[in-house]
């Protein structure tokens, strides 16, 4: 079992700019210009999908999807496989590009760039800049097998954020402690269990201090007895920090514990959304009832 | 047939010279093949077609024409409008260039064998492209292909006598020279054994490397 550090929010604090209680009512609701202003103001829209369509060949995976996620909220996406949940996370991580529509993160276009008042294909530099606000944990961990645990977590802070080795190492150690793996700093991923690898992957994603954390079926590839350790760590992070989360999971009790809202997907559309209590206890839509009957 | 140790003794000075040429060609040729092959393999994954296309055309051309023709071309044709180089330098470049088109395929397979999740993780962390190659992809790809690269070194060793056709006197060239002037045959035997003595330990070394580099995953 992991033994998370006492105060995760201290580890995750975004360079002192804002903590859980802060509000910044003066921040503009949405601005397309890159801004240094605090983006953590509660209630502010952080992720926005406008009319997003994604197709794979003839198959439409997302169909003119609109939705948004406010800063600090934890949103769980549920629905049958193939309903487009994972595609949403992969679009946000820029691993896929939408055929139509726009995605905005913290007031900046992710899928486009504004030039002379027109929306154009974004430059690599622009994508990189906006994408830094997003972190992702994958179903299959995707740790770098040629690096030890500590370096897996340090690599991006040093080479992307430009932190000094010492600073990155100190932060990495704090995060590895948060996920309960301090004794394993010098091990290679192959020497860890799946659950431990996934906890390293969580630390690695958090080390970039993302504003949004995407969790893509993070326990689906784990042996059943390792699932609880990973979910405990995530529950702890969700409940004690102000990080915004988009979660795709089949762990309904976990979803219920951490979510502010739940979106039920079917065939690339949102069929129902609401608080976890409402969705899990009194779903309105037949499709939701049907789906929940199969997973609960 | 009589075996005459005196003939072997007489051949030795020329043998050592030839051996030196063979080993130089092998070592430097391998370095060129390893480095250039990696350049070709990475260029073939470049995001720009104007990089990929000429590299593919060139490597296909070199791989599908005989080394012997390439050596003649480099030694006799290139100096017409370019630099003229010594026979050994030409031979080294010829061997390295020819084998780089094979090592490129080896690297290509190694790179393709790195799971797509590694690229995705690098993207998710916003690692720059160069850093992704150096820190994530190549360390995993190269470990996989060391044995295959080693096999090409041994293949190159066995092709190295070809450089004698442009006058770089390797072991076999030296033996031929010696035998033709002395009307003896011992020198060929000596050279044959020498090839075996170099190639066999090399293949053992490759197997050791293979084991030490294996990523247990």
Automatic annotation (TrEMBL), chain B:
It is found in: Cell membrane. The chain crosses the membrane at residues 20-41, 187-209. Coiled coil: none annotated. GO terms for cellular component: ATP-binding cassette (ABC) transporter complex. Keywords: Amino-acid transport, Cell membrane, Membrane, Transmembrane, Transmembrane helix, Transport. InterPro entries: AA_ABC_transptr_permease_3TM, ArtM/GltK/GlnP/TcyL/YhdX-like, Ectoine_EhuD, MetI-like, MetI-like_sf. One of its GO terms (molecular function) is transmembrane transporter activity. The keyword Nucleus does not apply. Belongs to the binding-protein-dependent transport system permease family. It comes from the Bacteria. Signal peptide: none annotated. Pfam families: BPD_transp_1. It is a multi-pass membrane protein. Gene3D superfamilies: MetI-like. Residues 15-206 form the ABC transmembrane type-1 domain. The gene is ehuD. This is Ectoine/hydroxyectoine ABC transporter permease subunit EhuD. One of its GO terms (biological process) is amino acid transport. PROSITE patterns: ABC_TM1 (PS50928).
